[in-house]
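Please, structure for the following, as tokens.
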Amino acid sequence: MESARSFRGAELKALIDQIKTFGPWFHNFEIAENVWTNPAGEPGPDYPERRWREVEPLLPDVRGLKCLDVGCSSGFFSLKLKEKGALTVVGIDSGEQSKAIAQAKFAAQVLKLDVDFREYSVYDLARIGNGFDLVLFMGVFYHLRHPLVALEAVRAVCSGTMIFQTVTLDHQKEFLELKHEQTQDVAFGDALLRHPQFPSLSFVEEKYGGDASCWFLPNIQAVSAMIRSCKFEARKWAFPTNREVIVKCTSV
């Protein structure tokens, strides 16, 4: 982190002990000079920095913006937005990672960054207010039992840009979509329903890659259709791998 400060002696030892107390961490970031939160754990020492490199080119100029980070985990993206000059940043997480919000608050204190972290679910967004210029909605969608309810809740508080990321079914790192007139009124039993470009989701009843918290895997056409149905417009697509997508959207 650009805000990482130098600690020495007893102060450094106390900081390292506190980091261990707050563990296990999901995000690995430099919370102080040469001090990292999760250098040896999963999902790897370069996460979430590698995700930031994918997301940063999609961001608007955040200086002076009101920002919301949904599913903030231990706070890396929220803190980066504040470093980049956001006026206000709210980070929420529902407690899937039991210490996430406590970690985020601790990191903000150490880094001296003013970010408001709260233990809220995406379904609770109406309690926060509205008028966010930028919403990060990443790494959350496929973990939700009610994904469209959540996306509608995000739309209700977003007055500007949403950065949306989800795991998907396999794709070829390009976006191809059926013509709207083909899909606006599909007949019962129509073969079009089985077309590989027809919007669809796969339901995960048990586990996906050993993860029991995943519920739905959309194809990228379903990502587009669901974004559109919740009154967002997809502006730019990024394909980090052939099993995920990041979309820059604007509210309409």
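The mean pLDDT is 95. The chain has one domain: 9-251.
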